[in-house]
Write a structure and sequence with these properties.
205 residues; six-stranded parallel sheet; 6 strands
Length: 205
């Protein structure tokens, strides 16, 4: 059986092949990604101050948001995804956490948030599907507060260099030290052990 991991596309919703696939992705997230999501949630939030605001880009059915909300009841957590049915599923999964969690429809290349909104911007197994990772990187930086951090968890083949080039551009972009990039092994994600340490932002080319 072919398994698709939760993803996010930087295209119009009409072009999004994941629209209408929320039930399938929810099954994958519940049965294959629960342990990785717990480890990612712990890793991503370890140094966050109390009351911080978190954005998860390409959130799919919102199961990572659930782990974040359970682990850190003090956080304000937002997920964004291009597919409306993913967002509807995420909202249902988050309903027990009240107004400190939400999910909205949006494109990573044009995020529906004000500048300087989030203390942490993260994305898991989504970057390798973005149509324009450089534009996405610029948007992640735009919505990130001063002193915040961008954390990206994705396959080793994901376009990290293009993302970082967009995010650290000449127009006041994020410093490379504000990134944590964690390549994930393609096989055996259920036995995921996160590498430790911050990696420098890759250079384009």
């Amino acid at each position: 059986m072919r398994i698709h991991l939760p993803t996010h596309h930087a295209h119009g919703e009409a072009d999004n092949p994941f629209q209408g696939e929320a039930a399938h992705y929810e099954w994958v997230a519940r049965h294959l990604m629960r342990r990785p999501y717990r480890r990612i949630a712990a890793d991503a939030t370890a140094a966050l101050p109390a009351g911080a605001s978190v954005l998860d880009v390409g959130t799919g059915p919102g199961l990572l948001l659930v782990e974040l909300a359970r682990m850190r009841p003090d956080l304000r957590i937002t997920g964004v995804d291009l597919a409306t049915d993913m967002v509807e599923t995420a909202r249902r999964n988050l309903s027990s956490f009240g107004d400190r969690t939400t999910a909205v429809v949006g494109d990573v290349s044009d995020l529906p948030f004000e500048d300087d909104t989030f203390d942490l911007v993260m994305s898991t197994l989504s970057l390798h599907h973005w149509g324009d990772p450089s534009a996405g990187g610029a948007e992640l930086t735009r919505v990130l507060r001063a002193g915040g951090q961008i954390r990206i968890y994705d396959l080793r083949s994901a376009p990290f260099a293009a993302l970082c080039a967009g995010a650290t551009g000449s127009d006041g972009g994020a410093e490379p030290s504000r990134f944590r990039i964690t390549p994930l092994p393609r096989p055996a994600l259920r036995r995921l052990v996160l590498p430790s340490g911050d990696l420098p932002a890759p250079q384009p080319g």
